[in-house]
Amino acid sequence: GIPYGLQSSLLPVYLRGAGHSLTRIGFTKILYFPWVLKVLWAPLVDRVGTKRRWLVGTVSGLALTCLSSAALAPEAHIWGVAGTLLAMNTIASVQDIAVDGAAVGLLKGRWELGLGNTAQVVGYKAGSVFAGGGLLAVIDVAGWSWMFMLLTFVYAGVALFVWGAPVLDDENVKQADGSRRGGQGAEAVRPWRVWRKLMAVPGTPWTILYVLTYKLGKSN
Hints:
This protein is an all-alpha fold. The protein has eleven helices and no strands. The chain is globular, with a radius of gyration of 19 Å.
């Protein structure tokens, strides 16, 4: 939720205060595009490597993008900042796939699935509020660079926590990973087979069009 809140709430306010035009601020919506494309790399994330490695790698990547953003000032390096935020969205979209895959392997029964879904939604919203409203207060006092340094330390701490989290050693996660790989290893290398199967499901193209239209209207 942090990258979303950062770009939907904090970035427009900060850029407007820095003197950027509304047109340029509006174009920042393009930075969300990796979330639309995450279906392209979802089969790879789901079938190659472990959930721990994907999660540690993506959270560490978010820490590095925040560290890069701390060294850039939007007033003078707007395209550099846009590049780091685009990378942040790409990494966060990969992380989202890994988190959902781990949840599928760990959570059993309606009770656990309900609690897990609640935790994910509430955590996402909390991260969005923290990045939107909370970091606005931080940036007002400490400035752009220190705000991203704070996020760098937050993500670095999360990466260490995930690396040592015993829950990711659970046999359910390993079994879920193994069942997905069994007989389907080629699909990780040739994911277009998965996409072709998906598009062959009746109603899928219209559903995709509906979701994209809904998201576009919601973002506006």
